[in-house]
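Entry for uridine-5'-diphosphate-glucuronic acid complex. Fields follow.
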Amino acid sequence: MRVAIIGTGYVGLTTGVCLAFVGHSVSCLDSDCSKITALRRGEIPIYEPNLGDLLEGARPNLAFTDSYAEAIPGAEVVFIAVGTPPTPSGAPNLEFLSQAARCIGQYVNSDFTVVVNKSTVPIGSGNWVGSLLREAYEQRHEGASADFAVASNPEFLREGSALHDSLYPDRIVIGADESRALEVLYSLYRPILDQTFTAPTYLPRPESVSAIPLVSTDLASAELIKYAANAFLALKISFINEIGLLGERVGANISEVARGIGLDSRIGSRFLSAGIGWGGSCFGKDTAALIATAGEYGLSMPIVEAARKINSRQRDRVVEKLLQELKILKGRTIGLLGLAFKPNTDDLREAPAVEIAQKLIDRGVRVKVHDPIALHRFQREHGGMSVQACVNVCEMAEGCDALVLLTEWNEYRDLDWEALAGRMRVPFLLDGRHALDREKLARAGFRYVSIC
Ligand code: UGA
């Protein structure tokens, strides 16, 4: 099928490359010409494992453009995957979405087209996008009515494992109020639903994956599914963090508690890692948007609000633990292991590390930072922060009163801890992710404390 994708961020680019890989003819559009030029050269503007390889594999079916006139006419399906950044009120900024809808409306031809919201958009946006499209089409075609339907196809990919989540998803959700739109999307996703494509060697199909469940529903339900899924995952993390605090007081081991409850299949073991809380561009934004939408209907969402409060408390607990240990923070030197909001990405949006670094600076701490992938991006995006960026962990450990693990990169698990202890003023490590081996660190001379 002929597909156009508006927006080449994490969601748009991954979707475009995966659909091209399974055999569709895909045109990826972005208004940022420098991104398009780079993509045409095969350069990926984001850090996402294997995305470059898959793009090369899919190249015969892929085009990159900054022109709506090129991408839209003739496309049977148009995905909108533009950014919807948060505004101070919690409601997302829909400026890019409305711009995209208007431009699509101007350029769709008279054949039936399905316009799909892939960006996470507030409930009701499907209707709103439909009215913008219709208006733009009618303006351009002197009152003639367009033949299109709006659908919602929420995205559940995680940064860092975006390709795996797109090719082997737990489920695909499609929502529309017109059955012919659902039929088009069903055909589009057929190769993934039936797993008929040849798996790339670097991303083999997991043995447990055969047919992928499809949830085919109405527009509003699909829109709500996305928010409910992210809010539930966020709740799970905040729940284990709340239990962790009590666990610490009663002397329980939170990793054991998480294992003990997670093995109950009604609860499930994933997203029960206690620590400094969630970061990234999704959970914070989507829980805020859900609360804002509920507010428009005169409803409150106390459970979701509590999850947000607990999450922000986890950042403060890092400072509290350091205070407990070091007594005085002013004038101390503290090294932060990891900046990205999680491993395998260079994304720093709402990264706990950035927030924690600022809290420590405000307390008069001299902060040193390291990240195997996100360091350069950090310097570009947070150049104004007074921290010392270190390209290796040894250099960072020099003269430190504490190291704090904030992103559980694999390579941090096997550091030469003895050598690091020797360079520090005090060999103390605060593990914000329950990721390191307490005994190994103790053997290397570290005092080890974790965040619960
Ligand atoms: C999240 C969802 O997991 C995806 O399903 C969804 O598609 C995406 O948002 C989105 O809405 O676009 P993502 O933000 O990429 O994906 O990252 P996650 O893997 O969910 O991690 C989010 C944060 O939670 C990270 O900071 C991670 O360190 C933290 N986390 C995760 C924990 O603190 N504990 C856990 O047990 C799991």
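NOTE: The longest strand covers residues 2-6.
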